[in-house]
Fold:
Amino acid sequence: MAGASTTAVAQEFETVIGLECHVELSTTTKMFCGCRNEFGAPPNTNVCPVCLGHPGSLPVPNERAIEYIVRIGLALGCDIAPRSLFHRKNYFYPDMPKNFQISQYDLPVCVGGHLDVEVDEHVRRIGITRVHMEEDTGKTTHAGVTGRIGQAEYALVDYNRAGVPLVEVVSEPDIRSPEEARAYLTELRAILEALGVSDVRMEEGSLRCDANVSVRPAGSHELGVKVEIKNLNSIRSLERALSHERDRQVELLRAGGRPVQETRHFDEETGTTHPLRSKEEAFDYRYFPEPDLPPLELDPAWIEAIRATLPELPAARRDRLRREHGLRPEQASIVGSDARAAEYFERAVALGAPGPAVARWMTQDLAAYLNRTGEGWEELAKRFSPEALADLLRRSEEGELSSTGAKAAFELVVETGRPLGEVIEERGLRQVSDTSQLEAWVDEVIAENPRLVEQFRGGKEGVLNALVGQVMKRSAGSANPQAVSELLRSRLAEP
Amino acid sequence: MPVDIDIDHVARLARLELSDEERERLRAQLSLILEHAAKVSEVATADVPPTASAIPRPTVLRPDVPTPSMGPEEALANAPDREDDRFRVPRIVEVE
Amino acid sequence: MSGDELCDLTATELRSRLVEGEISPSEIVESCLHRIEVLDGQVRAFLTPTPDLARERARAVAELARAGTSPVAGIPIALKDVLTTRGIRTTCGSRILETYVPPYDCTAWARLSAGGSILLGKTNCDEFAMGSSNENSAFGPVHNPWNLDTVPGGSSGGSAAAVAAGEAVWALGTDTGGSVRQPAALCGVVGLKPTYGLISRYGLIAFASSLDTVGTFTRSVRDAAMLLSVLGGRDPMDATSLDQPARDYTASLSGEVRGLRVGVVREALGEGVEPGVRSGVRSAIDRLEGLGATVGEVSLPHADYALSAYYLIAPSECSSNLARYDGVRYGLRVPGEDSMQMMMRTRGAGFGPEVKRRIMLGTYALSAGYYEAYYGQAQKVRTLIIRDYERAFASFDVLVSPTSPTTAFRIGERTDDPLAMYLSDVFTIPANLAGVPAISIPCGLDEKGLPVGLQLTAPVLGEELLLRVADALEHELAFDAVPGLVRG
Structure:
């Protein structure tokens, strides 16, 4: 549905999207106390008077968290404020130990950056309004009959996550399609990963995203009524939710209606959004400067020192891969956007493997494998190291392995965990160009397939492939298909 | 100038259940206090910068080094209600 | 009782006797516990006495006290019940924390404890330190030992009364708008509010974070200096604590004030000040002049607006600080259909009228559309108050005024009129807004036989000067009156 309507909708309406992404930082300890910041610990074990909001406790900011937000700001081209301020955002919720969240308001650490995204080889610059520092809440589990919030009998709260450092990256409403939103989030995740500041695991909630969506007639410069969508737990959810929401709003407008300003919840199962129950009173967070924390004043020399240690970012890496290794854009995008994929690539190339061949393997066979198993590059590197890939490519190039043989060898290595050389030997994958062996197989196949032989001789050229396939099968992939093909032709030309 | 306050709205924001009598008394008292407090605007002119904290002091940051946590028994020792090692509360119907 | 038992002595005197080996910490503790037993039924200074702990602790620190290395070793103390004590109930004078047992010690007590101090118990106070009479305690009022029908002042009324009655040698309180100095004045003891941030606030259960300070109640200025020497100095747990090393504040008590310039705050001796207070403070100023200080008049022109600013800033911060009492993690819970109702009922039942009033006031003042008009404007007045002080301290070393416009008033007299009650703090509030240190010392009795307090104020981190002037004046005045209750 989304694919078909995208073009039609784009001509008549323009979609305006802004994203607010929350990033849990991978510091050792929490934002304002020395409790461990770790995912999956038993309930209420990483808690202390500060993060449980006990009376009299006070926050002291984590230096590493501040360093991380500066890294993020610099990577996104933001200005780093020499003086910023923590504010209290006041609202009641059982998972908020103090019933206010320490956040930032009018003086955030980072302001005014941008992120370039590429969709269909077209680069667009998305503005970053601000990046600010705050703390996470605890985790509520709704319990009782159905597990749905509304019908739950009670709720249980675990405060392990309360006080985990959280960075909010707010984009300008510059995003124009669900595809761009996906590209934005993918790129942001890649940057955060490259910076080493977060686990960026959306399924564990270390990267979360809310979207503001509105639709307006194409050519209009006024913003439409903004709808906020929550519960976007994956990049796929984001794109699905936005497509659905755009279509919903367009339908409304076409029918002469108007969306209402509201918060909607994305339902993963149905792929639709529905309104969250909101109270009559608008949220009134009563922001005021956090009196327990002096202004955050950052030494410009410290900021410059952080800038000097920034790693190569995905965009630069992709450029370099294209330039230095001749990768095609889509290859560079797959290899260059993921820090571990890039590392895998560079290691294989450093061992003498040709860049384009490594890229082809990575984007085809290896990517397919990762897709199938759900593993990441790091795990793959343990099963099938860059060294193994370089070795495999060398053997292919030297004619020792056919392309079929190479694929088979790869599959066997990841399956059995045995070394490449052993697998090749054992399964006889070495490419056979030895004519006498080939002749024997070819003769057997011709003898066993009189009908195909008949057809070929009758002028059906295409049948040759089937015969080649038969020979390859007989050789368990070790025969050189080129040689087989030639041999078949000459044998069949014989009377 | 007397200040007219939407007591119910403020009480809801502050999560305070008030009796009718409390509501009436507060309406009168807050109005009076706010009227008095509004005196601040007589001298707080645009050219005066606000002070959030009396004594300016540099930022204090903490090294990212773990300190001991409490453990669930101590964490839940004061809990009005619990289920295993989590705090138990009545169902939550409001959003945020 | 004669008023000269061990529990009636200064810490300075007790310390020298401990070091001489004449007495043991246990004897001092027994003396205090006996006094509590005899008088506290009437004074009601303590919410949670800890006699068993005190006895045990007295034995444990006997050697340390004899060694004399720490100025607080072996000397019993009482703590206002807004300072957290690990394993000892801490209520803030509120129903909502009636059963709350903190999992940690506040830094102030942790330092005293490390120095060999002995805890006698937790003292009564206005609920969450909001009040000027101690009548806002959920557990009943404290009675002033000078006249049991009058208030001890507040909010640290229990601590002030305990020291005045000989139930404790010294005590800690907290001062957000005068909550140490005003009760010290009304109870005839010395009350010190140091520079904001000099004593860590970690474990001080917050009322208004940008104004809250830990303060001391003592029988002499020298005792206050001794306590401050242990309490002061940077604490990594409090980001607002000042980067000051611990130091010995008794070293500056030279008794010398010759040539010091003393500014009498003009606005503080006008109408609204009781004649007895005015004359008591006036004559003390004359004595100061007699000691060789130069006395002149000074104006704090924006002091008039301080009260208004305070009653916007303090409730605003309080509305946020007290949001955590919601019946989820600790404290009172009143059941409800859902969490929202549970919270509303819990807070409705758990907080008293004054706390509710301030939460409502602060919530309103911070809410959308009013922030600039109230909180924002009040913060500007804060700037003006700070400038007033800067100007005053350009010409004077210390400022002098009454601590409170009146001496102790009758219980119940002002409970129905919050504005009249708020006026009790009119002379003490400006120092909190500006963060400067101030001290109240007794300077005589009024015609009703009730103590009058004199307040000295110094610039930021001017504690040494402040204590030196206060100590010199204290010796000159030689105030040695004892409440009739104590004389027996």
Notes: Chain C touches chain B through 74 residues (CB under 8 Å). Chain C is about 40% helix and 10% strand. The two ends of chain C are 5 Å apart (CA to CA). Chain C has two domains: 6-262+395-487, 303-376.
